């Protein structure tokens, strides 16, 4: 029924900071950027493999729940060929990563870090 994930939408509290994080730190290419005057909102589409991240800004969005086990989308995970190499690159850009762990089911390396709003992001081999 489904072939792929088309996009994941993220709402940023500070568009400029999040745009810098996703485009400069994570090096995601920009597909398009639009300002929607009627909503006072930016929408930035970023390429991730065959999928996209839609980065939105809205005036005064509510804060994200601080409970990591709350119902709903838990985190966003990126596939990388080498977790250790990616962690080194991220940490070189000032991103704090958790210690690398081994997935008990796949025996592959993974770890987590956060975007500027505290959204959990995972990298996994």
Question: What fraction, in percent, of the residue positions are helical?
Answer: 10-25%
Number of distinct helices: 2
- Radius of gyration over all CA atoms, rounded: 15 Å
Count structural domains. 2
Structure class: alpha/beta
Give the mean pLDDT.
92
Largest sheet report: 4 strands, mixed
Task: Please tell me the CATH architecture of the largest domain by its name.
Answer: Roll
- Tally of extended strands? 8
End-to-end Cα distance, whole Å, is 26 Å
**Uncertain segments:** none
Oligomer type: single chain
Shape: globular
Looking at this structure, what is the CATH superfamily of the largest domain?
2,3-Dihydroxybiphenyl 1,2-Dioxygenase, domain 1
Strand content range: 35-45%
Q: Which CATH first-tier class of the largest domain would you pick? A: Alpha Beta
Helix/strand order: EHEEEEHEEE
**Strand order across the largest sheet:** 1-4-3-2
């Amino acid at each position: 029924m489904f072939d792929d994930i088309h996009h994941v939408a993220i709402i940023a509290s500070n568009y400029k900071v999040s745009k810098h994080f996703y485009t400069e730190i994570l090096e995601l290419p920009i597909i398009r950027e639009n300002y929607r005057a009627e909503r006072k909102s930016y929408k930035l589409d970023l390429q991730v493999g065959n999928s996209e991240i839609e980065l939105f800004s809205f005036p005064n969005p509510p804060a994200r729940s601080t409970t990591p086990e709350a119902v709903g989308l838990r985190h966003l995970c990126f596939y990388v060929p080498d977790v250790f190499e990616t962690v080194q690159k991220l940490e070189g850009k000032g991103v704090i990563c958790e210690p690398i762990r081994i997935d008990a089911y796949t025996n592959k390396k993974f770890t987590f870090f956060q975007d500027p709003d505290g959204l959990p992001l995972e990298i996994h081999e």
